[in-house]
Write a structure and sequence with these properties.
The protein is an alpha+beta fold. Helix content is about 25%, strand content about 40%. β5 and β6 form a beta hairpin.
Length: about 140
């Protein structure tokens, strides 16, 4: 599985990510990193990046990380997403690093950490997630 293959899939099958300014930047075995490119229209008052953007980012980035383990499987779907807001994401790009922790027969589990560009030690969010795998 290559970065270019997943990016081509995204362009065709999940164009809403590009509309939300969420783009896949890199992949490795069981790991994906994405970037939300800051744009004021996706903020709440006082310049906080809106929570739904961050949650979508965690979900999509795990989806892409999962592809590095099982191939591109469009119908792998979110079963659960628990997102913890740790501090506000304010006025800049956000990066998300998602990692697949376990792939079972029917369910895959993982985590996603979100942080402001240039400050990976200061998480703005942490998510745990599971995906149901199709037959």
């Amino acid at each position: 599985m290559t970065l270019e293959e997943i990016q081509a899939f995204n362009a065709e099958m999940v164009p809403f990510c590009a509309e939300l300014n969420i783009h896949l930047e890199s992949i490795d075995d069981g790991i994906a990193v994405s970037r939300f490119t800051y744009e004021e229209r996706w903020t709440r008052p006082v310049d906080f990046i809106a929570g739904p953007i961050l949650m979508a980012m965690a979900d999509a980035t795990f989806y892409w990380a999962l592809f590095t383990k099982i191939g591109i499987v469009p119908l792998a779907v979110t079963n659960e997403l628990k997102y913890n807001f740790l501090r506000p994401a304010i006025g800049g790009d956000v990066l998300c690093r998602a990692e697949v922790l376990k792939v079972g027969r029917r369910v895959a589990y993982g985590v996603a950490d979100l942080y402001m560009d240039g400050a990976p030690e200061r998480l703005v969010g942490h998510a745990t997630t599971s995906y149901v795998l199709p037959d």
